[in-house]
Amino acid sequence: MSELERHAVVAGAGIGGLTAALALHRRGWRVTVCERAAGPATVGAGIVLAPNALHALDTIGFDLAAAVGSSVPTGMGGLRRPDGGWLNRADATAMAARYGRPPLALHRSALAEALAAALPEGALTYGAAVTAVEEAGGRTVVRTAAGDLSADAVIAADGIHSTLRRQHFPDHPGLHYSGETAWRTVLPGGAVTESCETWGRGERFGMVPLADGRVYLYATAVVPEGYRPADIRAELLRRYGTWHDPIPVLLERIDPATVLQHDLYDLAAPLPRLHDGRIAWIGDAAHAMTPNLGQGGCQAVEDAVVLAHLLERVDRAGAPAALAAYTRARLSRTDALRVRARRAGRVAGLAHPLAVAARDLAVRATPARTTRRALDDLFGGFTLPARADGRGPGPAD
Q1: pLDDT means over runs of 10, the chain (397 residues)
Q2: Where residue 130 sits, what CATH number does that domain have?
Q3: 24 in a structural domain
Q4: Could you give the CA distance from residue 104 to residue 302 in angstroms, rounded to a whole number?
Q5: In angstroms, what is the C-alpha Rg of the chain?
């Protein structure tokens, strides 16, 4: 079977699904992306792609900064207390030198639009939720709301509540509530020139200037699962309105109708594997993690690029073995980050005054070299595994 005859169906047009489709397309596969929504997402907030994700995109020849027409502002702050005092500061110049570039912060919709625009015409189908994947008559059949498709490989990028994950791993315990909820919104540009996150007692507030000049705001609080305030602005002002500048001014500017609230979950346990026959899971469907490391979207990008790399030179018969190699390449790294993100959230969400004081003292006392080693695992941890043909590790082509 020639390379052009291989067909991959991607379930979900989020960041991971679109990246997988683009990576596979650029590795010689025909791709069909099936998205349950009726059209492109019109809501969302910001995302920060760390150097590891940007390097992964480099390996498929996708220059995101060029695609969105801008780059992240160089100002990168660090961690602060509610009174404005710094717990630590980030050195953007040193980070860029160490990892080859700074992170890129942009609106999620801009990233999705850039990835979708790079796909071949007709590859993306809306209103076509994938409902099941079955083996029938020696073929892999993808059942969708818009009709059935035949596939040589199926990429399950159907999100944190993945239908395909529940179907193929029915004994998995599912999702675990972190104890925190999060509010997110984007404001027109203004007083924010550098990123920072502020830690209080069971509450956090973050601000990130985006590449297009807007500002991404997020806040978290330790609350019961399902908690929803009647007045979002009043709730945010009550919690964060006395914190350091410019937080109060930013809160006064928010439009409550644009504020997204989501409880924060991760997988209660790792999946036993990231593949099943001709299906591979990526992103939140594979290893949902809390956002405390800023790596959820970044790991979805890594997943997608590694998967396409392993599938590049295989025919239909070799696809299951390539997907098994994907599990071996990705399961350990992604689950370690899932656990690390959960632990980081517990530390950041401490509420008892003595525990908070001890936490803040520990953050201030942590040597810079220790912080660098931790970031090395995140930002410098992306490599492409060796394929059966001996290509890799390291950048492809």
Answers
A1: 75 98 97 95 85 95 81 67 93 81 89 95 96 90 96 98 98 98 92 90 95 92 98 98 96 95 98 98 98 96 98 94 98 98 97 98 91 87 83 49
A2: 3.50.50.60
A3: yes
A4: 15
A5: 21
**Is residue 142, in this structure, part of any structural domain at all?**
yes
Amino acid identity for residue 7 in this structure: H
Give me the residues paired with residue 262 across strands.
Answer: 182
- Tell whether 82 is covered by a domain: no
Total domains present in the chain = 1
Domain of 7 in residue numbering reads as 3-72+108-175+269-349
In a domain, 224, yes or no: no
CA 79 vs CA 96, 357, 364: distances in Å: 19, 14, 9
Angle at 375 between CA 374 and CA 378, to 5 degrees: 105
Which residues are within 8 A (CB) of 278 and not within 5 positions of it... i.e. 6 or more apart?
Answer: 133, 140, 151, 152, 153, 154, 319, 320, 323
